Amino acid sequence: MSQFLLVLVSGVASGAVYGLIGLGLVIIYRATDVVNFAMASLATLGLYVAVSLRDQGVATVLGIVAAVTITVVAGLLVRETVIRPLGQGQLFSALVVTMGVSLVVENVASSIWGDEPKSFPNLVNGTVSWSGAALPVQSLVTIAVAAVAMAVVGYLFARTTLGSAMRAVAENADTARVVGLEPQRLARIAWALGLGLAALAACLYAPRSGLVPTALVAPLFRAFAGIFLGGLTSMYGAVVGGLTVGVLDNLAANYASASLRDTFVFSFTVLVLLIRPQGIFGTRTFQRV
Amino acid sequence: MFRTMRKFRRAAGTTAVLAVVALTANACADQDSAGAGGNSSEIHIGAWLPLTGATASYGVPQRAGADAYFKMINASGGINDRKVRWTVKDNAADPQQTVQIARELVGQDKVVAIVNANGTSQAEAAFPFVLNQSKVPVLNEVGGNESWFKPPRPGLFGTQTLYEDQAAAIAAWTVQDGAKKILVVHSDPAAFVNVAKQVEPVAKKVDPSVEVDRLTVKYQTTDYTPVISKVKAAKTQAVILILTSPEAAAFLKEAKLQGLSLPTYAYAPVAAESTVSLAKDAAEGLKAVQLVKAPSDTDPAVKEFRTAMAKYEPGQPAGFLALWGWSNAKVFAEITKTIKGPVTADAIDKAYEKATKVETGVSPVMSFSPSNHLGTRSVQRVVVKDGVWTSEGDFYTPPKRG
Questions:
Q1: Across the interface, do B54 and A9 touch by the CB < 8 Å criterion?
Q2: Do B258 and B122 share a structural domain?
Q3: Which of A198, A224, A287, B36 is the most buried (most CB within 10 A)?
């Protein structure tokens, strides 16, 4: 029982990270039709700044704030300089551009900070005993922080004017402009929000993995699995998909075979997509031939 | 007018024929001199290293260590009054790029040998062109496996104790320390599984009553909470880690967090500075085997390395990987010193086959022969003490496997 509890909690903690990254991806995709592959490397850039600040004696929490700020600023810079000039609806061009940006940012991080792994501090140390299992407090904090961030995003989109405006722009930018909304401003806010969530996820993930320029490639990969599982256009889907991937991943590794971990998760994802191509919470769209 | 034209044509034709002959002769000369490696005042060698990309953390320090050594000996006259020119090209750990680099090094730069390069699959991609077609030796590569040396291949010589022998050394050490029940925690790719499988036979050879189990972990796992729980449940007396450095650090951190305190041993990839910097105090007491002495040793040969690093590569830490590069460069220099006359590929090949008791002071004594192209099976035992890897005893040769 204690082993199952450990596996479950650590799976939910991993899933929370994937869910946050996935949520960031969906917010940006819905607002600007851009699948942002550069999100993970931009968040890594923020993490390196946080580590540099910590090395200068700055408190970890301030380092995390700096990481989020740097990621958001760098992301907005990328959007304004290389994504926005592409124009609306350039899904594949934007995809390739973000992939390119991702590689450039990884190389920049590598040349500034080197490729030697660096440690990133836990927010909290210690364990909590529950049903005979020693649960790491860091995992519980990860789950809690991710839950609060997701709740805030949910409230923003469901209950605030800004959220309604962002949803309106996501539905139809031209119509939104007619009613006086500013799509570009809202797109910038969506990018900032999405990148901020990714940076937060990165800060929760890095204490376990250590920090190298490609540290967030694996969670980004799983976040994508999560959003396709949950539905590319659904924010709930991104969260549920991420959590599902995290938990299945851990269950498979512990009760089936470590080697079959990815096979299990991605077979499940493929199976779901065969039955519901739009994902669990995605909306089915029809297009004229 | 026509006669003049005919003369011109004849002259042009003769010139063209001469040019072709000259070019052909030159091309033949190029082929002949492919192993010449520079002029009589220098020895030109080359290497491919991952200076960018995912494994640059290996290539950059390895280059710094070797560079420091070559700069040091060049400053004191070189090898038998010949300066060493070591041309390094970045392959970003990509086998295809390595083949291209091999063609440049051999075809254009005319290196006499590939020395101190990095990467198993990368080297294997280049072997058909470098070893088989061009007959240029590949020496002291970081990487490799048993099949490279059994049977020995012309021009291919190694200085790195095989991972399988490292596992044998750890197994013997663990049993000698008194463990009767050992758990080997290893990543799931075949390269790790194969190494992990070497532990049990050697452990049983040292003490037939020893029990050895294996626990497979998914490669690049970062969450070791459930793994530690399984290790606890196994009620083992010692753990052997066949993992990468970040994975081992994650294991150690989680073990400390969950109050698991067991003698823990690891193979050379874990005996890295990164394991200590990532795991911090959770790495204290970790035992591992290494290919070289600890860079913190007070030994004169290691001091020489640290001094040269500070002088010639001040931006690079004098760590294990730099010491690997240094050691490989020194083995090459020590063997090349024995060559009387031109330093050709053939001469290097013969010098390596005759080289016995090659001492660098920082790595095990290397001995080669026509039937043995791998210089050593020995390792250095190292332990983390006060946050620093420290050598324990002298070089150790594990019991034979199988």
A1: no
A2: no
A3: A198
**Using beta carbons and an 8 Å cutoff, which residues of B are at the interface with A?**
52, 54-57, 60, 188, 216-218, 220-223, 225-226, 229-230, 233, 245-246, 249-250, 254, 257-259, 273-274, 277-278, 280
CB–CB contact B225 A139 (8 Å): yes
In this prediction, residue B33 carries a pLDDT of 35
Whether residue B390 sits in one domain with residue B254 = yes
Residue B59 is encoded by which pair of tokens? 């290539």
Q: Does residue A259 belong to the interface with chain B, where contact is any CB pair within 8 Å?
A: yes
Q: CB distance from A10 to chain B under 8 Å?
A: yes
**Backbone torsion region of residue B165, taken as left when φ is above 0, otherwise alpha when ψ lies between -120 and 50, otherwise beta:** alpha
Distance CA(A166)–CA(A272), nearest Å, equals: 29
Is A254 part of the contact surface with chain B (CB cutoff 8 Å)?
A: yes
Q: What is the SS3 assignment for B316?
A: coil
A contacts of B387 (beta carbons < 8 Å): none
The Cβ of residue B64 has, within 10 Å, a number of other Cβ atoms equal to 23
What is the ipTM metric for this complex? 0.81
Q: Which residue of A has its CA nearest to B250?
A: A208
Mutate to test the interface with A, among B218, B313, B316 (most CBs of A within 10 A): B218
> B318 and B261, same structural domain?
no
Q: Which amino acid is at B304?
A: E
Q: Number of structural domains, chain B? A: 2
Tokens at B377, concatenated: 């099976």
Angstrom CA distances, B13 to A7, A92, A187, B8, B69, stand at 82, 57, 71, 8, 53
Q: Which of B53-57, B97-101, B277-281, B283-287 is predicted with the least confidence, judged by mean pLDDT?
A: B53-57
Query: If we measure between CA atoms, which residue out of B136, B114, B123 comes closest to residue B32?
Result: B136
Report the alpha-carbon distance of residue A49 to residue A66 in Å, rounded: 7
Q: What would the two tokens of residue A134 be?
A: 């020693």
pLDDT (tens digit, 9 = 90+) per residue, A225-254? 999 999 888 899 999 999 999 999 888 888
CA A44 to chain centre: 12
* Structural domain span for residue B232: 164-290+383-396
Distance CA A232, CA A214 (A): 24
Neighbours of A236 (CB within 10 A): 15
**Which residues of chain B have a CB within 8 Å of the CB of A133?**
229
Q: Which residues pair with B381 in a beta bridge?
A: B289, B392
Q: Considering the domain boundaries, does residue B2 fall inside one?
A: no
Query: Chain B contact for A137, CB < 8 A?
Result: no
Write down the pLDDT at residue B332: 98
Domain of B328: which CATH number?
3.40.50.2300
Per-residue pLDDT tens digits for B318-367: 999 999 999 999 999 999 999 999 999 999 999 999 999 999 999 999 99
CB proximity under 8 Å: A 103-122 to B: 107, 110, 114-119
